[in-house]
Amino acid sequence: MHIIIGALSAILTLLYILERLGIDIGWYNPWSWRRRRAWSRRYQGDPIYSVDDPMHAAAILVTGVARLDGTVSAEEKQALIALFGDKFSLQPRAAAELLGSAAHLLGAPQVVETQLTGLAGKTQGLFSAEQSASIVDMMERIAALDGGPTPTQLEYVNRMRNVLKPVQPAGAWA
User: Which helix (H) or strand (E) holds 13?
Assistant: First the structure.
């Protein structure tokens, strides 16, 4: 027994000395490791997946329709600002800021579809029936601009129509 106590004391002394010398031994604590891993995932991950506000998530999903075929045209920007002002009951400046933040969170056109699918899956039960119908309507309006919807936009809108099925009771945006 005295040998076990001596060995444990030697191990603890060694760990204490390593800690005092500035050598990180945080890997030894599983709770600290889990907390650091969760923080690094959040810090290094895509910020689009940390959106919790339904209005902001809806703005990202609708703006994504315009970004699927490349860049957002001036006509699409004006239509998006008008839609956000009308549907979300926002002032024009707030609607423009919402569009700016949504466009900023969306990545390059090559990864937009992956981002939007992931965000829609994360916010699946967040919208009511009325809100889901409103989002799909806004998507269809934006896709119809600039000469009609592209096949990619049509496929995306149909997929979102299935994903955004409501689970909560109906409610208004504002």
Answer: helix 2-20
CA distance 36 to 133: 40
What's the whole-number mean pLDDT along residues 7-20?
Answer: 90
Give the Cα separation of 135 and 77 in Å (integer). Answer: 16
Residue 92 pLDDT class (50, 70, 90 cuts): very high
- CA-to-CA distance for 68 and 121, rounded, in angstroms? 18
Q: pTM value?
A: 0.73
For residue 106, the model assigns a pLDDT of 86
Buried b (16+ CB within 10 A) or exposed e, 150-159: eeebeebbee
Name the token pair of 75.
């006509």
DSSP string, 34-83: HHHHHHHHHHHS-GGGG---HHHHHHHHHHHHHHTTSSPPHHHHHHHHHH
Q: Any idea of the CA torsion for 157, 161, 164, 170, to the nearest 10 degrees?
A: 120
Give me the pLDDT at residue 148, please.
Answer: 82
